[in-house]
Amino acid sequence: MKHTPPQQTEIARVHFGADPDCVSTVIETLLGHIFRGAPPDDVLATFEIALAEVINNIIEHACRYDSSAIIEVRVNRCEGGVQFHFVDSGFEMPAAKLPAGQLRDLGCARQELPEGGFGWFLIRSLTDDLRYRRRGGENHLSFRLQIGALA
Amino acid sequence: MELSSEQYPDVLLITVQSKRIDASGAIQFKDRMRALTGQTAGRVVLDLQQVDFVDSSGLGAIVASMKQLDPGQMLELAALSPTVEKVFRLTRMDSVFTIHARSSDAIESLKKAN
């Protein structure tokens, strides 16, 4: 079976250094390319959370906080939403696959509550078609965020 | 990472003055919370009205701050923005914390109880 990619239009291609202090600016820049005016609260929330978690992961685990490492993100309009494709030359994902991101039970004693492990759960909750590939020494991570009809 | 605090008769109100509690400020947040809550034994209300965004690191830091309290002490949250509320709801952490629409709700109800 041949897979025909859905119709896509490139909105933007952005490069940025792997620096945690720049994450909010990068997200603002991406949102500025995607939306004319402020999107509805829930759409904005989805985009901000998913993008922050993905970018944080790439900075921390792939690039290991090397702020001279460059991350590329290609942003494409697709049917009903926006597709993101992140590329970096950092370390490979452990076991070459995406973390499951399962939440732990919260009915435990206070001191046993988790302080981490939320990131991949949030990413999986908010994204469609999440894919990871290692190609030619690069990490390729892509996913879609739905927003219905774009302005 | 800026936090300010006001001590009421039975409630310590801590207001986050920064717009984000995220990966770049989570550790400072935890440290500041430990310093502020270490002196008090009663309820603690964390006002997040000025916070536009909390990521998974920020969420972890808020959970850690609660774990830093004495066993009987509660950490309550107030004034969550839509994006912050969504993070708590998706991770089901909204069932772990008492969440108020406004910090005045948390303090008024205490005055009524007295």
Which descriptors would you attach to this protein?
heterodimer, A: 151 residues, alpha+beta, five-stranded antiparallel sheet, 5 strands, 28% helix, B: 114 residues, alpha/beta, five-stranded mixed sheet, 4 helices, 7 strands, 24% strand, globular
Question: What is this structure, in a nutshell?
Answer:
Chain A is 28% helix and 28% strand. Chain A has helices at 23-34, 41-62, 119-126, and strands at residues 9-17, 70-78, 81-88, 128-135, 138-146.
List the helices and strands and how they pair.
The complex is a heterodimer of chains A (about 150) and B (about 110).
Chain A: E1 9-17, H1 23-34, H2 41-62, E2 70-78, E3 81-88, H3 119-126, E4 128-135, E5 138-146
Antiparallel strand pairs in A: 1-2, 2-3, 3-5, 4-5
Helix pairs in contact in A: 1-2, 2-3
Chain B: E1 3-7, E2 11-16, E3 20-21, H1 26-37, E4 43-47, E5 53-54, H2 56-67, E6 75-78, H3 82-90, E7 98-100, H4 103-113
Parallel strand pairs in B: 2-4, 3-5, 4-6, 6-7
Antiparallel strand pairs in B: 1-2
